[in-house]
Write a structure and sequence with these properties.
442 residues, elongated, eight-stranded mixed beta sheet, two-stranded antiparallel ribbon, alpha+beta, Butyryl-CoA Dehydrogenase, subunit A, domain 3, 10 strands
Amino acid sequence: MALVTLPANLTRLFHQVHVPLFDTIRALRSVTPQEIGLLWKSITTKRRPKRVPPINSDFYEILAELSPEERAVQQKIRMFMEERIRPLANGYWERGEFPHEIVPDFARLIDETFGSRPYAIDALGPVLTGVACMEMARVDPSIYTFFGVHWGLCMGSIDLFGSPEQKQRWLPPLQRFELIGSWALTEPDVGSATAAGLTTTARFERGFWVLDGAKKWSGNAPIADVNIIWARDVASNQVQGFIVERGMAGYEVERLEGKIALRTVQNANIRLNGCRVPEANRLPNVGGFRGVARQLAITRAAVAWAMTGVAMGAYERALAYAQQRIQFGRPIGSFQLVQNSLVQMLANVTAMQTMCLRMSQIAARNRSISQEQASLAKVFCGEKMRETVALARAVLGGNGILLEHGVARYFADAEALYSYEGTHEMNTLIVGRAITGISAFV
Protein backbone atom coordinates (compact mmCIF):
# COMPACT_ATOMS: atom_id res chain seq x y z
CA MET A 1 0.00 0.00 0.00
CA ALA A 2 1.37 3.48 -0.89
CA LEU A 3 2.27 5.79 1.93
CA VAL A 4 -0.24 8.53 2.72
CA THR A 5 0.98 12.04 1.92
CA LEU A 6 0.24 14.16 4.97
CA PRO A 7 -0.47 17.90 4.84
CA ALA A 8 2.35 20.12 6.06
CA ASN A 9 0.38 21.38 9.04
CA LEU A 10 -0.34 17.80 10.15
CA THR A 11 3.40 17.01 9.88
CA ARG A 12 4.19 20.02 12.07
CA LEU A 13 1.59 18.83 14.57
CA PHE A 14 3.37 15.50 14.95
CA HIS A 15 6.71 17.29 15.47
CA GLN A 16 5.15 19.57 18.10
CA VAL A 17 4.17 16.58 20.22
CA HIS A 18 7.66 15.10 19.81
CA VAL A 19 6.60 12.04 17.83
CA PRO A 20 9.17 10.88 15.25
CA LEU A 21 7.61 11.56 11.87
CA PHE A 22 8.79 8.43 10.04
CA ASP A 23 7.78 6.15 12.91
CA THR A 24 4.35 7.71 12.76
CA ILE A 25 4.13 7.27 8.97
CA ARG A 26 5.07 3.62 9.25
CA ALA A 27 2.33 3.18 11.90
CA LEU A 28 -0.16 4.81 9.56
CA ARG A 29 0.42 2.44 6.60
CA SER A 30 -2.81 0.60 7.36
CA VAL A 31 -4.83 3.81 7.72
CA THR A 32 -6.90 5.06 4.77
CA PRO A 33 -6.93 8.69 3.59
CA GLN A 34 -10.55 8.89 4.67
CA GLU A 35 -9.60 7.89 8.22
CA ILE A 36 -6.81 10.47 8.25
CA GLY A 37 -9.34 13.07 7.17
CA LEU A 38 -11.68 12.19 10.01
CA LEU A 39 -8.79 12.40 12.47
CA TRP A 40 -7.83 15.82 11.16
CA LYS A 41 -11.41 17.04 11.34
CA SER A 42 -11.75 15.91 14.93
CA ILE A 43 -8.57 17.81 15.85
CA THR A 44 -9.38 21.06 14.05
CA THR A 45 -13.15 21.30 14.50
CA LYS A 46 -14.23 23.40 17.48
CA ARG A 47 -16.45 21.34 19.74
CA ARG A 48 -19.76 22.87 20.66
CA PRO A 49 -21.18 22.13 24.11
CA LYS A 50 -24.09 19.74 23.83
CA ARG A 51 -27.46 20.83 25.16
CA VAL A 52 -28.33 18.76 28.23
CA PRO A 53 -31.92 17.50 28.05
CA PRO A 54 -34.22 18.23 30.99
CA ILE A 55 -34.55 15.57 33.68
CA ASN A 56 -37.81 13.74 33.10
CA SER A 57 -38.87 10.71 35.13
CA ASP A 58 -42.31 10.58 33.47
CA PHE A 59 -40.99 8.98 30.28
CA TYR A 60 -44.32 7.44 29.24
CA GLU A 61 -46.33 10.54 30.20
CA ILE A 62 -48.58 9.02 32.84
CA LEU A 63 -49.39 12.50 34.15
CA ALA A 64 -51.09 13.18 30.82
CA GLU A 65 -53.87 10.89 32.09
CA LEU A 66 -54.86 13.55 34.62
CA SER A 67 -57.51 16.15 33.88
CA PRO A 68 -56.43 19.81 33.87
CA GLU A 69 -57.89 20.21 37.37
CA GLU A 70 -56.05 17.12 38.62
CA ARG A 71 -52.83 18.27 36.98
CA ALA A 72 -53.13 21.55 38.85
CA VAL A 73 -53.35 19.63 42.14
CA GLN A 74 -50.32 17.52 41.19
CA GLN A 75 -48.32 20.63 40.33
CA LYS A 76 -49.35 22.33 43.57
CA ILE A 77 -48.14 19.34 45.61
CA ARG A 78 -44.89 19.13 43.64
CA MET A 79 -44.16 22.82 44.13
CA PHE A 80 -44.86 22.59 47.88
CA MET A 81 -42.60 19.58 48.28
CA GLU A 82 -39.78 21.15 46.26
CA GLU A 83 -39.93 24.60 47.80
CA ARG A 84 -40.96 23.89 51.38
CA ILE A 85 -39.81 20.34 52.16
CA ARG A 86 -36.69 19.58 50.13
CA PRO A 87 -34.54 22.37 51.65
CA LEU A 88 -35.07 21.05 55.19
CA ALA A 89 -35.49 17.31 54.60
CA ASN A 90 -31.87 16.25 55.10
CA GLY A 91 -31.37 18.23 58.29
CA TYR A 92 -34.42 16.84 60.07
CA TRP A 93 -33.65 13.34 58.82
CA GLU A 94 -30.10 13.50 60.16
CA ARG A 95 -31.28 14.79 63.56
CA GLY A 96 -34.17 12.34 63.72
CA GLU A 97 -36.62 15.15 64.41
CA PHE A 98 -40.03 16.01 63.01
CA PRO A 99 -40.46 19.44 61.35
CA HIS A 100 -43.44 20.76 63.29
CA GLU A 101 -42.92 24.08 61.52
CA ILE A 102 -44.33 22.69 58.26
CA VAL A 103 -47.65 21.45 59.71
CA PRO A 104 -49.55 24.77 59.25
CA ASP A 105 -48.30 25.06 55.66
CA PHE A 106 -49.14 21.42 55.06
CA ALA A 107 -52.65 22.03 56.41
CA ARG A 108 -53.09 24.94 53.98
CA LEU A 109 -51.93 22.75 51.10
CA ILE A 110 -54.50 20.10 51.98
CA ASP A 111 -57.22 22.69 52.42
CA GLU A 112 -56.46 24.16 49.00
CA THR A 113 -56.39 20.66 47.51
CA PHE A 114 -59.63 19.40 49.03
CA GLY A 115 -61.46 22.68 49.39
CA SER A 116 -64.59 22.42 51.48
CA ARG A 117 -65.21 18.76 50.73
CA PRO A 118 -65.65 16.56 53.80
CA TYR A 119 -63.00 13.93 54.37
CA ALA A 120 -63.27 10.59 52.62
CA ILE A 121 -60.43 8.12 52.18
CA ASP A 122 -61.04 8.19 48.41
CA ALA A 123 -62.02 11.86 48.11
CA LEU A 124 -59.50 12.61 45.36
CA GLY A 125 -60.14 9.38 43.51
CA PRO A 126 -57.68 6.49 43.30
CA VAL A 127 -55.49 7.91 40.51
CA LEU A 128 -54.98 11.41 41.92
CA THR A 129 -54.57 10.04 45.44
CA GLY A 130 -51.83 7.76 44.16
CA VAL A 131 -50.13 10.57 42.24
CA ALA A 132 -50.23 12.74 45.38
CA CYS A 133 -48.49 9.99 47.37
CA MET A 134 -45.94 9.61 44.58
CA GLU A 135 -45.18 13.33 44.55
CA MET A 136 -44.66 13.46 48.31
CA ALA A 137 -42.37 10.42 48.40
CA ARG A 138 -40.45 11.73 45.38
CA VAL A 139 -39.04 14.45 47.64
CA ASP A 140 -39.29 12.98 51.14
CA PRO A 141 -40.58 9.49 52.01
CA SER A 142 -40.75 10.55 55.68
CA ILE A 143 -43.26 13.31 54.98
CA TYR A 144 -45.28 10.93 52.82
CA THR A 145 -45.30 8.43 55.70
CA PHE A 146 -46.39 11.08 58.19
CA PHE A 147 -49.24 11.99 55.85
CA GLY A 148 -50.14 8.38 55.03
CA VAL A 149 -50.45 7.38 58.68
CA HIS A 150 -52.44 10.47 59.62
CA TRP A 151 -54.66 10.65 56.53
CA GLY A 152 -54.99 7.10 55.24
CA LEU A 153 -54.72 5.01 58.39
CA CYS A 154 -55.99 7.10 61.29
CA MET A 155 -58.58 9.20 59.49
CA GLY A 156 -59.28 6.32 57.09
CA SER A 157 -60.20 4.05 60.00
CA ILE A 158 -62.66 6.60 61.37
CA ASP A 159 -64.12 7.17 57.89
CA LEU A 160 -64.50 3.46 57.09
CA PHE A 161 -65.49 2.10 60.50
CA GLY A 162 -66.68 5.02 62.61
CA SER A 163 -70.17 6.11 63.57
CA PRO A 164 -71.64 9.39 62.24
CA GLU A 165 -70.98 10.96 65.63
CA GLN A 166 -67.34 9.85 65.61
CA LYS A 167 -66.82 11.17 62.10
CA GLN A 168 -68.34 14.51 63.03
CA ARG A 169 -66.23 14.79 66.17
CA TRP A 170 -62.83 13.66 64.92
CA LEU A 171 -62.52 14.10 61.17
CA PRO A 172 -62.81 17.91 60.85
CA PRO A 173 -59.99 18.76 63.33
CA LEU A 174 -57.85 15.98 61.91
CA GLN A 175 -58.45 17.24 58.38
CA ARG A 176 -57.33 20.71 59.49
CA PHE A 177 -54.27 19.14 61.20
CA GLU A 178 -55.36 20.71 64.48
CA LEU A 179 -55.01 17.16 65.79
CA ILE A 180 -52.40 14.65 64.64
CA GLY A 181 -53.41 11.02 64.16
CA SER A 182 -51.64 7.70 64.54
CA TRP A 183 -52.48 4.02 64.03
CA ALA A 184 -51.25 0.87 65.78
CA LEU A 185 -51.66 -2.73 64.68
CA THR A 186 -48.19 -4.32 64.89
CA GLU A 187 -46.99 -5.62 68.26
CA PRO A 188 -43.48 -6.31 69.61
CA ASP A 189 -43.95 -10.05 69.08
CA VAL A 190 -46.67 -10.03 66.42
CA GLY A 191 -45.97 -8.51 63.02
CA SER A 192 -47.02 -10.49 59.97
CA ALA A 193 -49.12 -12.81 62.15
CA THR A 194 -51.63 -10.13 63.21
CA ALA A 195 -54.40 -11.80 61.22
CA ALA A 196 -53.91 -14.98 63.25
CA GLY A 197 -54.43 -13.24 66.54
CA LEU A 198 -53.38 -10.08 68.33
CA THR A 199 -52.09 -10.40 71.86
CA THR A 200 -53.35 -6.93 72.80
CA THR A 201 -56.73 -7.55 74.45
CA ALA A 202 -59.88 -5.55 75.13
CA ARG A 203 -62.55 -6.44 77.69
CA PHE A 204 -65.75 -4.54 78.37
CA GLU A 205 -66.36 -3.43 81.96
CA ARG A 206 -69.11 -1.06 83.12
CA GLY A 207 -69.28 1.11 80.02
CA PHE A 208 -65.52 1.12 79.33
CA TRP A 209 -63.19 -1.02 77.30
CA VAL A 210 -60.05 -2.01 79.17
CA LEU A 211 -57.03 -2.45 76.91
CA ASP A 212 -53.93 -4.42 77.87
CA GLY A 213 -50.89 -5.19 75.77
CA ALA A 214 -48.23 -3.47 73.69
CA LYS A 215 -47.75 -2.01 70.23
CA LYS A 216 -44.61 -1.32 68.20
CA TRP A 217 -43.72 1.02 65.34
CA SER A 218 -46.87 3.13 65.56
CA GLY A 219 -46.03 6.03 63.25
CA ASN A 220 -46.65 9.58 64.56
CA ALA A 221 -47.54 8.21 68.01
CA PRO A 222 -45.04 10.36 70.01
CA ILE A 223 -46.60 13.52 68.54
CA ALA A 224 -50.17 12.27 68.02
CA ASP A 225 -53.32 13.45 69.76
CA VAL A 226 -55.32 10.35 68.84
CA ASN A 227 -54.28 6.81 67.98
CA ILE A 228 -56.31 4.02 66.43
CA ILE A 229 -55.48 0.94 68.51
CA TRP A 230 -56.42 -2.53 67.31
CA ALA A 231 -57.07 -5.21 69.93
CA ARG A 232 -58.74 -8.60 70.30
CA ASP A 233 -62.05 -8.66 72.16
CA VAL A 234 -61.64 -11.42 74.75
CA ALA A 235 -65.39 -12.14 74.72
CA SER A 236 -65.88 -12.56 70.96
CA ASN A 237 -62.24 -13.15 69.90
CA GLN A 238 -62.84 -10.56 67.15
CA VAL A 239 -60.58 -7.65 66.28
CA GLN A 240 -61.89 -4.29 67.46
CA GLY A 241 -60.67 -0.75 66.80
CA PHE A 242 -60.49 2.01 69.42
CA ILE A 243 -59.81 5.75 69.32
CA VAL A 244 -57.31 6.22 72.13
CA GLU A 245 -56.57 9.81 73.13
CA ARG A 246 -53.34 11.28 74.40
CA GLY A 247 -53.35 11.45 78.19
CA MET A 248 -55.71 8.52 78.80
CA ALA A 249 -54.69 6.62 81.92
CA GLY A 250 -52.74 3.45 81.12
CA TYR A 251 -51.65 4.69 77.68
CA GLU A 252 -47.86 5.09 77.59
CA VAL A 253 -45.85 6.12 74.54
CA GLU A 254 -42.08 5.79 74.23
CA ARG A 255 -40.24 7.14 71.19
CA LEU A 256 -38.50 4.41 69.19
CA GLU A 257 -34.79 5.10 68.83
CA GLY A 258 -31.98 3.79 66.64
CA LYS A 259 -33.65 3.78 63.21
CA ILE A 260 -31.65 3.90 59.99
CA ALA A 261 -34.66 4.70 57.79
CA LEU A 262 -37.48 7.28 57.84
CA ARG A 263 -35.68 9.02 60.67
CA THR A 264 -37.95 12.06 60.44
CA VAL A 265 -41.00 9.90 61.18
CA GLN A 266 -41.66 9.59 64.90
CA ASN A 267 -42.32 5.93 65.71
CA ALA A 268 -43.13 4.51 69.13
CA ASN A 269 -43.38 1.60 71.47
CA ILE A 270 -46.73 1.72 73.23
CA ARG A 271 -47.78 0.10 76.49
CA LEU A 272 -51.42 -0.39 77.39
CA ASN A 273 -51.81 -1.13 81.09
CA GLY A 274 -55.50 -1.27 81.92
CA CYS A 275 -56.17 1.67 79.56
CA ARG A 276 -59.85 2.58 79.94
CA VAL A 277 -61.50 3.68 76.70
CA PRO A 278 -65.17 4.75 76.66
CA GLU A 279 -67.62 2.85 74.47
CA ALA A 280 -68.10 6.07 72.47
CA ASN A 281 -64.50 5.64 71.25
CA ARG A 282 -64.95 2.12 69.90
CA LEU A 283 -65.23 1.94 66.10
CA PRO A 284 -68.55 0.10 65.63
CA ASN A 285 -68.28 -1.02 61.98
CA VAL A 286 -65.01 -2.94 61.84
CA GLY A 287 -66.36 -6.45 61.28
CA GLY A 288 -63.25 -8.28 62.49
CA PHE A 289 -59.87 -8.46 60.79
CA ARG A 290 -61.47 -8.49 57.34
CA GLY A 291 -62.29 -4.85 57.84
CA VAL A 292 -58.68 -4.08 58.66
CA ALA A 293 -57.57 -6.04 55.58
CA ARG A 294 -59.94 -3.98 53.40
CA GLN A 295 -58.38 -0.78 54.69
CA LEU A 296 -54.87 -2.16 54.22
CA ALA A 297 -55.61 -2.93 50.57
CA ILE A 298 -56.34 0.78 50.02
CA THR A 299 -53.28 2.01 51.89
CA ARG A 300 -51.06 -0.70 50.39
CA ALA A 301 -51.95 0.62 46.94
CA ALA A 302 -50.87 4.06 48.12
CA VAL A 303 -47.55 2.63 49.33
CA ALA A 304 -46.92 1.18 45.85
CA TRP A 305 -47.34 4.69 44.46
CA ALA A 306 -45.01 6.04 47.17
CA MET A 307 -42.38 3.45 46.29
CA THR A 308 -42.63 4.75 42.74
CA GLY A 309 -42.00 8.26 44.03
CA VAL A 310 -38.91 7.09 45.93
CA ALA A 311 -37.52 5.50 42.76
CA MET A 312 -38.27 8.67 40.78
CA GLY A 313 -36.46 10.83 43.30
CA ALA A 314 -33.40 8.58 43.33
CA TYR A 315 -33.29 8.40 39.52
CA GLU A 316 -33.58 12.17 39.13
CA ARG A 317 -30.81 12.87 41.65
CA ALA A 318 -28.53 10.27 40.05
CA LEU A 319 -29.12 11.64 36.55
CA ALA A 320 -28.43 15.21 37.67
CA TYR A 321 -25.21 14.05 39.30
CA ALA A 322 -24.13 12.10 36.21
CA GLN A 323 -24.63 15.16 34.03
CA GLN A 324 -22.43 17.34 36.27
CA ARG A 325 -19.78 15.05 37.77
CA ILE A 326 -16.55 15.25 35.75
CA GLN A 327 -14.09 12.37 35.72
CA PHE A 328 -11.31 11.76 33.17
CA GLY A 329 -12.22 15.11 31.65
CA ARG A 330 -15.81 14.11 30.85
CA PRO A 331 -19.20 13.97 32.62
CA ILE A 332 -19.69 10.47 33.98
CA GLY A 333 -23.03 10.46 32.19
CA SER A 334 -21.04 9.94 28.98
CA PHE A 335 -19.76 6.55 30.17
CA GLN A 336 -21.52 3.47 28.85
CA LEU A 337 -21.87 1.68 32.19
CA VAL A 338 -23.36 4.78 33.84
CA GLN A 339 -25.84 5.19 30.99
CA ASN A 340 -26.78 1.53 31.33
CA SER A 341 -27.56 2.05 35.03
CA LEU A 342 -29.58 5.18 34.33
CA VAL A 343 -31.63 3.48 31.62
CA GLN A 344 -32.30 0.51 33.89
CA MET A 345 -33.47 2.91 36.60
CA LEU A 346 -35.76 4.75 34.19
CA ALA A 347 -37.20 1.45 32.96
CA ASN A 348 -37.96 0.46 36.56
CA VAL A 349 -39.62 3.79 37.27
CA THR A 350 -41.69 3.61 34.09
CA ALA A 351 -42.84 0.05 34.80
CA MET A 352 -43.80 1.03 38.35
CA GLN A 353 -45.72 4.09 37.17
CA THR A 354 -47.69 2.22 34.54
CA MET A 355 -48.54 -0.64 36.92
CA CYS A 356 -49.74 1.75 39.61
CA LEU A 357 -51.72 3.78 37.11
CA ARG A 358 -53.53 0.69 35.84
CA MET A 359 -54.17 -0.51 39.40
CA SER A 360 -55.77 2.83 40.30
CA GLN A 361 -57.80 2.91 37.10
CA ILE A 362 -59.25 -0.48 38.07
CA ALA A 363 -59.99 0.87 41.55
CA ALA A 364 -61.75 3.89 40.03
CA ARG A 365 -63.83 1.68 37.76
CA ASN A 366 -64.79 -0.85 40.45
CA ARG A 367 -64.81 1.65 43.35
CA SER A 368 -62.38 -0.63 45.17
CA ILE A 369 -59.14 -2.52 44.75
CA SER A 370 -58.73 -6.14 45.69
CA GLN A 371 -56.24 -7.16 48.33
CA GLU A 372 -54.40 -9.28 45.76
CA GLN A 373 -54.11 -6.48 43.21
CA ALA A 374 -52.74 -4.08 45.81
CA SER A 375 -50.33 -6.72 47.11
CA LEU A 376 -48.95 -7.46 43.63
CA ALA A 377 -48.24 -3.77 43.10
CA LYS A 378 -46.45 -3.53 46.42
CA VAL A 379 -44.39 -6.67 45.70
CA PHE A 380 -43.30 -5.48 42.26
CA CYS A 381 -42.76 -1.84 43.16
CA GLY A 382 -40.86 -2.83 46.30
CA GLU A 383 -38.39 -4.90 44.32
CA LYS A 384 -37.91 -2.27 41.63
CA MET A 385 -37.62 0.55 44.16
CA ARG A 386 -34.88 -1.31 46.00
CA GLU A 387 -33.02 -2.02 42.77
CA THR A 388 -33.36 1.58 41.61
CA VAL A 389 -32.06 3.22 44.78
CA ALA A 390 -29.13 0.78 44.82
CA LEU A 391 -28.25 1.69 41.24
CA ALA A 392 -28.53 5.38 42.06
CA ARG A 393 -26.23 5.02 45.04
CA ALA A 394 -23.69 3.17 42.89
CA VAL A 395 -23.76 5.86 40.18
CA LEU A 396 -22.66 8.37 42.81
CA GLY A 397 -19.81 6.16 44.00
CA GLY A 398 -18.57 7.15 47.45
CA ASN A 399 -20.68 10.31 47.35
CA GLY A 400 -23.73 8.08 47.30
CA ILE A 401 -23.61 7.69 51.08
CA LEU A 402 -23.64 11.45 51.74
CA LEU A 403 -26.94 13.20 52.42
CA GLU A 404 -25.87 16.31 50.51
CA HIS A 405 -26.14 14.59 47.14
CA GLY A 406 -29.76 13.56 47.65
CA VAL A 407 -29.57 9.80 47.07
CA ALA A 408 -28.46 8.39 50.44
CA ARG A 409 -31.77 9.27 52.11
CA TYR A 410 -33.78 7.45 49.42
CA PHE A 411 -31.43 4.48 49.70
CA ALA A 412 -32.03 4.19 53.45
CA ASP A 413 -35.73 5.06 53.48
CA ALA A 414 -36.53 2.46 50.83
CA GLU A 415 -35.84 -0.27 53.37
CA ALA A 416 -38.71 0.89 55.56
CA LEU A 417 -41.22 1.12 52.71
CA TYR A 418 -40.15 -2.33 51.55
CA SER A 419 -41.36 -3.83 54.84
CA TYR A 420 -44.26 -1.73 56.12
CA GLU A 421 -47.91 -2.24 55.17
CA GLY A 422 -47.14 -5.95 54.95
CA THR A 423 -43.73 -7.42 54.27
CA HIS A 424 -42.62 -8.36 50.78
CA GLU A 425 -42.98 -12.05 51.64
CA MET A 426 -46.50 -11.77 53.08
CA ASN A 427 -47.74 -9.78 50.10
CA THR A 428 -46.20 -12.38 47.81
CA LEU A 429 -48.14 -15.14 49.56
CA ILE A 430 -51.39 -13.14 49.33
CA VAL A 431 -50.98 -13.06 45.55
CA GLY A 432 -49.83 -16.68 45.46
CA ARG A 433 -52.96 -17.79 47.28
CA ALA A 434 -55.13 -15.88 44.82
CA ILE A 435 -53.58 -17.37 41.68
CA THR A 436 -53.21 -20.97 42.87
CA GLY A 437 -56.19 -21.29 45.17
CA ILE A 438 -53.84 -22.76 47.78
CA SER A 439 -52.76 -20.95 50.93
CA ALA A 440 -49.06 -21.19 51.73
CA PHE A 441 -49.42 -19.28 54.99
CA VAL A 442 -48.20 -21.11 58.08
